[in-house]
Design brief:
The structure holds two protein chains of two kinds. By secondary structure, chain A is mainly alpha-helical. Chain A has helices at residues 14-21, 26-32, 39-51, 61-77, 97-108, 121-133, 144-152, 158-186; strands spanning 10-12, 35-38, 83-86, 115-117, 139-141. Classes of the chains: A mainly alpha, B mainly alpha.
Chain lengths: 201, 103
């Protein structure tokens, strides 16, 4: 079994890494916030890089998968960057193996996890149910929570926070809307003076 | 769902669907509840007809108070409830001391 890296209390899945890996705040996120993912999610990132072309049309889904995954993998490979991985045992397989690996990690090591961050709404619900069943105090939130940590600690401005949310809204359709709406309603924060009308719902 | 909205009716041109439904009602043991089947069928088809942009527009109309919760939930199904959960989870998380997570 591979030796696990340092564990950080924020656990992120493949699609959350891709979403924030494509964001304008990626460099600041990886400079300031400790994140942990699983070896299964890392494998999914590698598959995305292999299955998509670097030269895919800018802004297309293959482009986002390729470049977001590449950014996350580069950070995982760099020992100086506080993005680490833990090894899932037993190793989940199948289409939702990454999400399963997070659920397994949350259930096996609940004391080591404060937040689980996933891009997929059904995945969040599934892990939230697992956490509730175990009566654990782990919060399951959408990826803009990482932008919020930077904002809450004065590492970015409201403008930068709103623009990063706007990027997600523009790129990720209903999935992105869910992620961003949860942030805007939950904080709450008003981005309407910063984003274009077509981005602010 | 309120009684008022349950009493609302939709009229549509049924074509041979009317004869088909009436026939099944006659031959099926105990009959069938055509209204109930129509509600379920229309709900499913409305959900299937929605694009991402439609869903966003619907949730925004609900957020602005221009669409009832019943109607929004009917259109968005489980996704409506998951979004409520996501908002609640975020609301709780912003109470935390986030400086703990900086390196």
């Amino acid at each position: 079994m591979a030796t696990d890296d340092k564990r950080y209390p924020i656990l992120v899945d493949t699609d959350a890494l891709i979403a924030v890996g494509n964001s304008s705040l990626w460099a600041k996120l990886t400079a300031h916030i400790g994140l942990t993912t699983t070896n299964v999610c890392k494998q999914e990132l590698k598959q995305h890089v292999e299955n998509t072309r670097e030269t895919a049309p800018e802004g297309s889904r293959p482009y986002r998968l390729h470049h977001g995954s590449r950014a996350a993998l580069d950070a995982l490979e760099d020992d100086e960057t506080p993005l680490t991985q833990v090894t899932s045992v037993p190793r989940p397989h199948g289409a939702d193996a990454g999400e399963q690996s997070l659920r397994q990690e949350v259930l096996q090591n609940p004391d080591a996890v404060d937040y689980a961050i996933l891009m997929d709404a059904a995945g969040r619900r599934s892990i939230r149910r697992a956490v509730e069943d175990q009566d654990e105090a782990i919060r399951v939130v959408t990826p803009p929570f990482l932008f919020y940590i930077l904002y809450d600690n004065d590492l970015i401005s409201r403008e930068e926070f709103c623009e990063a949310c706007g990027e997600l809204l523009e790129r990720e359709g209903w999935t992105g809307y869910n992620a961003v709406k949860a942030a805007w309603e939950g904080i709450p924060i008003d981005c309407s003076d910063i984003l274009d009308d077509h981005l602010t719902p | 769902m309120s009684q008022k909205s349950l009493d609302d009716t939709i009229k549509f041109r049924a074509g041979p669907l009317k004869e088909a439904a009436t026939e099944l009602d006659a031959v099926h043991l105990g009959g069938i509840n055509i209204s109930e089947l129509a509600r379920e069928g229309l709900t499913q088809m409305l959900r299937r007809s929605m694009t991402d942009d439609d869903k966003i527009a619907i949730y925004e109309r609900y957020s602005d108070g221009d669409l009832s919760e019943d109607a929004a939930r009917m259109l968005l199904g489980d996704e409506f409830d998951v979004l409520q959960e996501d908002i609640d989870a975020f609301r709780e998380a912003v109470e935390d001391d986030t400086s703990d997570y900086l390196v």
